[in-house]
Amino acid sequence: MARGDTAGRDHVDEMMEGWRAELPEAATVQLEIVKRAGRLKALIEEVTQSVLGEYGLTYAEFDVLATLRRAGSPYRLKPSLLAARSSLTTGGTSNILQRLTTAGLVEREPDPADGRSSWVRLTPLGARRAEELALATTEAHRDLLADVPEDTSLALAGLLREVLLALGDRAGGSRRG
C-alpha cells in the first residue's frame, strides 16, 4: 500500500510503482512531492481557466486585475511593482496592460511626482470584474476541494507554507534562485 494511504491509490502511486520496479533510485519522496504538486496545480488551473474563459480572460490578465484589487483603494500600482506582485515579467505585464486597457478594465495615469513614471489603476468596471472573478474562482476552488476535509486542508496549507519557506520563497519578493 502507498505511503500515507487511507482511501486508495492515486495516479502518482501507479507511476511510483513503475519507477520502483524499473529504476528504484528514481522513486524518491521528492518525485512524489513534485508529481502530486503538479497534478494538484493542473486540477486547480483547469477549474480556474474554466471560470476565466467565461469572462474571456487569461490567467495572466486575471492575475493583474486581482493584484490591483488586492492593493486596496484606489486600486493602483506602479507597473514595476505590479509585475513583481503578480509574478509576471515587466514585458509580459506591458502586453497584458495593453489588452486590459483596450477592454476598459485598467487605465494608465501619469505620476505627477515623477514625469518618467506612471500608475496603473483599475477602472470602476475593472474593480467590479476583479471582484466577480475573485469570488467566482474562489467558488470553483471550493467546489474542487469540497471532498477534502477541513482539517486536511488546513494541515496541507501549513505544510506547503513550510516547504515554500524552506525553498526560500518569502513574503516581500525575496526568493532563492
Structure description:
The structure is a single chain. The protein is mainly alpha-helical and 177 residues long. The protein folds into 2 domains: 13-56; 57-139, Arc Repressor Mutant, subunit A. It is built from 7 helices and 3 strands, in the order H-H-H-E-H-H-E-E-H-H. The chain has a 3-stranded antiparallel sheet with strand order 1-3-2. Helix 2 (29-55) packs across helix 6 (124-144) and helix 4 (79-85) crosses helix 5 (90-102). The longest helix is centred in the N-terminal third of the chain and has 27 residues, at 29-55. The radius of gyration is 20 Å and the shape is elongated. The two termini are 36 Å apart. The relative contact order is 0.10.
Total helices: the number is 7
Q: Please write the CATH class name of the largest domain.
A: Mainly Alpha
Compute the number of structural domains: 2
In helices, the fraction of residues equals 55-70%
| Total count of strands | 3
CATH topology of the largest domain: Arc Repressor Mutant, subunit A
Strand percent estimate: 5-15%
**What's the N-to-C terminus distance?**
36 Å
Indicate the overall shape.
elongated
**CATH superfamily membership of the largest domain:** Winged helix-like DNA-binding domain superfamily/Winged helix DNA-binding domain
Q: What string, H for helix and E for strand, traces the elements in order?
A: HHHEHHEEHH
Structure class: mainly alpha
The CATH architecture classification of the largest domain is Orthogonal Bundle
> How would a textbook summarize the main sheet?
3 strands, antiparallel
Radius of gyration: 20 Å
Strand order of the largest sheet: 1-3-2
State mean pLDDT (0 to 100 scale): 91
